[in-house]
Amino acid sequence: MALILYSDRHWESPYVFSCYVALAEKQIPFEVRELGLDRGEQRDPAYAKKTTLARVPAIEHDDFALPESQAIIEYLEEAFPHTPRLLPADMRERGRARMVLAWIRSDLLALRQERSTTTMFFAEHRATKPFSESARAAADRLLAIADRLVPEGRNQLFATWSIADADLAFMLHRLIINGDSISSRLRAYAETNWNRPSVQSYVNHPRPAYIPH
Fold this sequence. Notes:
- This protein has 2 domains: 3-85, 3-Layer(aba) Sandwich (Glutaredoxin); 91-196, Glutathione S-transferase Yfyf (Class Pi), Chain A, domain 2 (Up-down Bundle), CATH 1.20.1050.10.
- It is 51% helix and 9% strand.
- It has helices spanning 14-26, 45-51, 69-79, 91-106, 109-114, 117-121, 133-149, 163-177, 184-194, 197-203, and strands at residues 3-8, 30-35, 58-61, 64-67.
- A 4-stranded mixed β-sheet has the order 2-1-3-4, covered by helices on one side.
- β3 (58-61) and β4 form a beta hairpin.
- α1 packs across α8, α4 (91-106) packs parallel to α8 and α8 crosses α9.
């Protein structure tokens, strides 16, 4: 049975992005099944029972279903150990990669609201207003932390590429795509990772007209 990734039908979720890139990088055959969040399809009783949390993304592997992107990444790393790694082999680097994944998912709320993924993937919804005070502070925090995380002269966080690079590049592209200021060093890092084939496959996937949800 092919592994199934459940995605939002607008292909704009940063968490689906992370799982999609993870599967593509691991070269695991998978199929995508889209759910219309604007239609509440994630609340379908059968999907809710299967995935427990009734959230997207989720994966289905044989008779096992799992939601939550970071849990999915960890599961894929353990379930498919002989495929390319998503997290560094070195224990300390692996810990820092997990730190980056957790930080991106738990911080910078005002930035994520004012430079939403809708502004990234639907040109007609690009941000037109300047940052609020809280979003400006979040953007400054993102850039300051990214500046500390990305080693000088490198376009990956660790000795080898990791899924943390994809997630951090995605967050930085909230600024880049909307024309916000970012240093040339961080732009080069973000664009290098944005141009990976796995990332471009997600970015360039066809999308229907956006319907708010």
